[in-house]
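Exam revision sheet. Question 4 asks you to relate a sequence to its structure. Input first:
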Amino acid sequence: MILAPIVFSKAAAVFNVFDANQNPSRLHLLGTDGLGRDLLLRLAVAARLSIGLALIATAISAVIGSLLGGGTALLPPPIRAVGLRFIDTMLAFPALLLAIFVGAIIGAGAAGATLGVGLAGSFYIARVASALALSVAAREYVVAARVLGVKGLAQLTRYILPNIADTLVIVVTVAVSNAIVFLAALSFLGLGVQSPQYDWGAMLTEGVQQFYVTPVAAIAPAVVISVCALAFGLSGEALARSLNPLLWTGSDSARRPGAPVVNASREAPATDKRMDSKSKDVALRVSNLSVRIPTGGASLDIVMDISFSVAKGEMLGIVGESGSGKTTVANAIVQLVPYPAVVAGTVELNGQDLSKLTKRDLDRLLGTSVAVIFQDPMSSLNPTLRVGVQLTESAEVHRHIDRGEAERVAAGHLREVNIAAAEQQMERYPHEFSGGMRQRVMIAMGLMNEPDLLIADEPTTALDVTIQAQIMEVLRQINRDHDTAIVLISHNLSLVSQNCDRLLVMYAGRIVEELAITDLANALHPYTRALLAVVPDVSRPPDQPLDFIPGHAPHLAARPAGCAFHPRCPLAEDRCRIEVPPLLTREAGGRVACWVANKDLSGKSS
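Answer key, structure tokens:
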């Protein structure tokens, strides 16, 4: 294709009227056209122009379509809806008709045809890219990148497009096929390549005029166009595989010569730098936090009147059944509650009210003062980027340090979370790590900007008990060494009681009790007592059945009146079924929201 115009251009342009309209022969394998020119040579010479213009048109489509579709997914929901409707509207126009329209405005010729086909194909790619990008934009690793301060074009090019590239490249190669056909059609209509240049479409036009004399003059260009379009379509699968690291990298180090052997369970020497008394500086203060989702003419309260604080160097545990609002509270703190939810109340980080900050200051504060460890580390890490790139990104964005320094800091934090051969591990992809090591990587990523607050949302889910213990030891070490405030969200009350200083118990979107871990035996709320009772105890006689909490947590859309726990509470009174109990301060410390327990309290609300 590249050399044919250089080698065969002169031979393909030789006129011989005596050989005009010849059928295939040994001298001319595909015959000749109306001026006696060899059809095979002309097809070869026209290949570079035909395919080259198609690739340029597809490049235009891919760039415009990817940015338009992927960028639309990053817009605020109301504006996003407008963008998607615009793309759908443009798709309603036939692509060839739109290409003819643009080509007619610019003028007949290769430039107008190429631009017209490129613009016409961009909306198809944009629609596919927007659908793919919307599915990726909600994943944890994109949310984590947003928390770290990766915004706009960087988020699109590093987190959205690479993760849809394998599917998008198939769409693009199909677009090459369509571009070849459309450009040929425009040349056939006289709007494409103009004489003395010629492409396959121009040859098809000439061949159709002589179809009943030499049918091969029309059939040959048509076959070449079809075969070339099919070839590009089939090549998309191979390109897609090459862009997906999951398909061309292996997690088995034995298959990779020189890969280090890593003992993932290696424990760091135990050190105890815990101060005699906790710092009283408040890292996080939440006041009257509520999250409400509009539902038609009504609204649904997800969490209501949540108030608590966490001091630097303190570890606070939040427990409750699924649907109690634990993760929603965490998302509200770091401004990740999805639209159209409405957040009310006050969140202060290091004394700064988040609602009073500009967007730029808010992004910087959240990116440097808060780290979030989500439940599933595999979905929190970008599968198409090496671990080292993901570790250094936030430090480069917020601390403005160079790549070399960022890599040195990242390697140090990897060693801190007990990952050996840190420099080598930074060159690996997330799928090449075990679940426990991925969670350690997430913790190391959270430490890159030395945050004052670390929120760990179910960090040990799906890990075996040995790895759970190792992860919790890492968190305790961070809590000791960095004086970092930690909010640990978990279903596992036993895990929380072994590692935290204080406990918040949530039920149906409210805090029902707060108390010190050392005071667990004196818990007052029936729900807290029930949670403690169902914790397995090795001292229990083997023949004694495990306790359980009867019933199930209420759906938030059908929350019962009064105390939400009363249908399951053995101590419920008439008042419990009518009035919501206030969260009152205990004389011995802590808070509880229970009419039965409140009888023994001072009655002073907090």
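Marking note for examiners. Residues 219 and 601 are 94 Å apart (CA to CA).
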